[in-house]
Amino acid sequence: xxxxxxxxxxxxxxxxxxxxxxxxxxxxxxxxxxxxxxxxxxxxxxxxxxxxxxxxxxxxxxxxxxxxxxxxxxxxxxxxxxxxxxxxxxxxxxxxxxxxxxxxxxxxxxxxxxxxxxxxxxxxxxxxxxxxxxxxxxxxxxxxxxxxxxxxxxxxxxxxxxxxxxxxxxxxxxxxxxxxxxxxxxxxxxxxxxxxxxxxxxxxxxxxxxxxxxxxxxxxxxxxxxxxx
Length: 229
Hints:
31% of the residues lie in helices and 21% in strands. The strands form 3 sheets. Strands 7-1-8-9 form a 4-stranded antiparallel β-sheet. It has a 3-stranded parallel β-sheet with strand order 4-3-5, sandwiched between helices. 30% of the residues are buried. It is globular, with a radius of gyration of 19 Å. By secondary structure, the chain is an alpha/beta fold. The mean pLDDT is 93. A hairpin with a 5-residue loop joins strand 8 and strand 9.
């Protein structure tokens, strides 16, 4: 187990461990006790009562955060013909076709998101082992496999976040930076939480949300009262 530093212990001491905070109060406290020298990311963790091994209980989706994530994502678009021109005009950082796929296979990964047109998925599919583990593989369900490249680029640049339950039934997602105002962090977090609640599978039995925690990159987690969500 990694050694816990003095600053972490100090931050932890400011949290009432017996209490479940409202979403807003928890975020305010997480922002207040953040101690790193860099601008930490504010995160929401949701523990769900689903079995992700069952396809009909997979919880995933995307949501555009109203206040973005504090940085514009570097977007790579793999398309053909006129769609390449559309992508460049819409502000994509890198645009190409099969040569882009070859470049990625050679180890180039200087981007935060990949958008592909459906006609290119045959070649993009060969990148599964490279992009999949990094959460960058284009997928129709998340709107990153589409002929509407303009909309996909605009949403991604605006702060579109993909959420997906992991094999332990947990969702982790960023909701902004510590430097954001309390209001902006709360608005982003509320939109994310609401999207996850809306994505509840019909086959999910029992308690859907088992726990919610908020915190900053380096800070301790703060328990949130799920009854108010």
